[in-house]
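Hey team,

Filing this mostly as a record. A colleague (T.K.) asked me to run one chain through the structure pipeline before their review meeting, and I want the input and output archived in the tracker in case anyone asks later how it was produced. No errors, nothing strange. Just documentation.

Input sequence:
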Amino acid sequence: MNGPEGKYAWTATVGEKGQIVIPKQARDIFGIKPGDTLLLLGDEKRGIAIPPKGAFAELFGIAFQNEEENEE
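Output structure:
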């Protein structure tokens, strides 16, 4: 699909085992390689989001930073 610059939309089909295939264009744009771990965020009203690679490490750091601040 074509849209505003830097904005994309794709469709994926869920297989019998609950797996989806990320479209090649999306994998290329976001540098997703076999074996990568992706973070999925879900909201019953807004849907599912897959943040960029590295977001998990950033969120992990923020979570522990906040925990350390709360201990002081």
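Quick notes for T.K.: The beta strands are 41-43, 47-49. The longest helix spans residues 55-71.
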